Amino acid sequence: MDPHHQPDPTPPSPEPSPSAAPSRWQRLRPALLGGLAGAVTVTLLNETVRRQVPHAPRMDVIGERALSGALDAAGVEPPRGEALYRWTMLGDLVSNTLYYALVGVGARQGGWARGGALGLAAGLGAVYLPEPLGLGRQPGARRPVTPVLTAAWYLAGGLAAAATYRALAGEDGEG
């Protein structure tokens, strides 16, 4: 031992043990990324198919009506045209991400059931709630294919959220 060497006054920080409790971020990360996967799935389906298929779901129109109405009620002039569309898409992605992140509430093994239930609930809500909420009907909603596709998009989002959550969550349900 070198007599002139001074020991480091700060002891080394202990390595986290495998049994240490995961951080809040480690627990939330799989759920939030699952939620994002679900939100992106719904948005991509809606935005891609509406450009190709007559009478496809138009949840973008319902979202624009909801955003405009909420801003009007708050005394704020809503954006118009392309700006309204962009703000609506951002709001859809954020709100759907948070909604589908609920797939992470509970054990990893229940992720598929929660994802399916969340997707089905959102799909049925998207089909049946706009009119009672004062948002009017979806364009093309009188065609039987429109509500079926609407529910299917949200169910696909729930299943995408579940798949992503289960892939990212550890065996104990935490990332």
Structural summary, described in words:
- With 175 residues, the protein is mainly alpha-helical.
- Helix 1 (24-49) crosses helix 3, helix 2 packs across helix 3 and helix 4 (111-128) runs antiparallel to helix 5.
- It has five helices and no strands.
- It has helices at 24-49, 59-73, 81-100, 111-128, 145-168.
Strand-helix topology:
Layout: H1 24-49, H2 59-73, H3 81-100, H4 111-128, H5 145-168
Helix pairs in contact: 1-3, 1-5, 2-3, 4-5
Biased composition (Pro residues): 8-19
Organism: Deinococcus budaensis
Region (Disordered): 1-24
The gist of it:
The protein is built from 5 helices and no strands. By secondary structure, it is mostly helical. The longest helix has 26 residues.
